[in-house]
Amino acid sequence: MNQEKSLFAAHALLPGGWAQNVLLRWDAQGRFTSVQADAEAPQGTMRAAGPVLPGMPNLHSHAFQRGFAGLSEFRGQAQDSFWSWRNLMYRFAARLSPQHLEAIATWLYIEMLEAGYTSVCEFHYLHHQPDGQPYAPDSELSLALLRAAKTAGIGITLLPVLYQNSGFGGLPPGDGQKRFIRSTDNMLRLLEALAPACAAQGAALGLAPHSLRAVAPDALKEAVQGLHALNAQAPVHIHIAEQMVEVNACLQWSGQRPVAWLLEHMPVDARWCLVHATHMDDAEYAAAAASQAVAGLCPLTEANLGDGIFDLPRWQAGAGRWGIGSDSHIGVNAAEELMMLEYSQRLQSQQRNVAASAQQPHVASHMMLAAVQGGAQAAGRDVAGLAVGQQADCVVLDGEHFALAGLPVAEQLDSHVFACSRSNAVASVWVAGQCQVEQGRHTLHRSAQQAFVAARSALLA
Predict the structure, then answer these.
(1) 143, 154, 238 from 191: Cα distances, Å
(2) Taking every annotated instance into account, which residue ranges of this chain make up the domain Formimidoylglutamate deiminase N-terminal (predicted)?
(3) Which of 307, 327, 393, 414 is catalytic?
(4) pLDDT, tens digit, 9 for 90 and up, residues 8-46
């Protein structure tokens, strides 16, 4: 029996740019078998309600922080910063149970789908009970995230975090970090234990050494070697150069800036995602781009935490690869992350339309394609757009939405990113050939939202 399904789009954003009259076909495994432009729609074929976009990978997520979003927007000292925010976040994290985490993550992943994300890289560092003792099983919180992704219907790359120290030079962890701590051997055992569960739902499994300040050099090398002994292609994600305090501490410790140290001491390549990488000098920008690692940019969170501005033109001048993530989930919207990234570049350069290219003069089209390619690489999954062999992940915009109606297709995407006035122009979302969002809503929207509110209320009681 032929299990192939199809969708016809008047306009679709293919890897090479916009195409007309596109017939998308996928098989029972949810992979594209044919992407044909200038086609005719066979009788009975589903027709998209508007332009079809590739599904966006979210390359950096701390799911539990969705429950904390908006709760630190008050001045608690003379000068608030990332570090004062972190102390408040630790207090929130100390109270989470597996049930809280699963409820928060399920709702978050539904929000992501409704906002145009079709997969997520979960940078997961909340491992143990509040007193630091392991759960039984030790993988309980990781499994809660896998269950949440399966319930929501989003693709996931699970990235358990290796966290051992509170600062450069092997400083012992603080009391607020005891839920995060694992030895290197313990982490590698966790990865072995999680591999079957990830494989069972088509999830990828990688490793996230938290940062250079949290993992000493010998442990970093041993962990990455152990990961790649299990799976040579597994992704490695690391926070790096997010704050100038971190850069200066790394200089004091090693005599080098963080990205320079990492590139000299570790085999950084296309399997790596350098999350934030905000504060680099010219040599670091050039060398990191040449490594083929992905820069993991989280513009809304970076703005919220006062991190600084990533220099996108300098990165792209070296053919650097990049993608977007929602990180702390102060906002959960793929279009708004792209808008914030472009606007930060405009503020820094005092120019407009900074992220466009000669091939793609429309800013949103260029950014969408670049972020999908970089996000797929960072995820370690075949989610690189509307192309044969890739997973059938796609987002259909509502062509009748007030911000899009009557516009040429490239301007429709520009308006989706820059002119939706915080409304949502996403009509439907498909993941692995399954429709997860219809008419802008996930079928579990209401029940998952209620469970999220109940979990957050319990945590704040």
Answers:
(1) 12, 21, 17
(2) 7-43
(3) 327
(4) 999 999 999 999 999 999 999 999 999 999 999 999 999
Cα distances (angstroms) measured from residue 426 to each of 245, 335, 441: 39, 10, 9
Residue 44 located in a structural domain: no
One DSSP character per residue, 108-130 reads HHHHHHHTTEEEEEEEE---S-T
Whether this prediction's pTM lies above 0.70 is answered by: yes
* Residue 1 pLDDT grade (very low, low, confident, very high; cuts 50, 70, 90): very low
| Domain range for 354 | 56-379
Query: Considering just the CA atoms, what is the radius of gyration of the chain in Å?
Result: 21
| pLDDT tens-place string over residues 118-150 | 999 999 999 999 999 999 999 999 999 999 999
Q: What is the spatial distance between Cα 436 and Cα 430, in angstroms, rounded to a whole number?
A: 6
CA–CA separation, 159 and 148 (whole Å): 15
Alpha-carbon distance of 304 to 82, in angstroms, equals: 9
203 in a structural domain: yes
- CB–CB of 107/459 below 8 Å? no
Which one is catalytic: 62, 100, 276, 362?
A: 276
27 classed as catalytic:
no
> How far out from the chain centre does Cα 312 lie?
18
State the pLDDT at residue 83: 65
Q: Residue 276 belongs to what H/E stretch?
A: strand 272-276
Burial 147-164 (b: 16+ CB within 10 A, else e): bbbbebbbbbbbbbbbbb
In a domain, 14, yes or no: no
Residue 207 corresponds to which tokens in the numbers above? 């490793």
Residue 461 CA to residue 459 CA, distance in Å, equals 6
Q: What are the Cα distances from residue 314, in Å, to 244, 287, 355?
A: 19, 12, 11
Nearest to 122, CA basis, from 100, 97, 147 = 147
Amino acid at 57: P
Q: What are phi and psi of 177, to 5 degrees?
A: -105, 5
Which candidate, 258, 376, 371, 243, places its Cα nearest to that of 310? 243
Domain total of the chain: 1
Element (H, E) at 416: helix 409-418
pLDDT in tens, 369-401: 999 999 999 999 999 999 999 999 999 999 999
User: What's 68's domain CATH number?
Assistant: 3.20.20.140
Catalytic site includes residue 128: no
Q: Which residues contact 179 (CB under 8 A, 6 or more apart)?
A: 93, 94, 126, 127, 128, 129, 130, 132
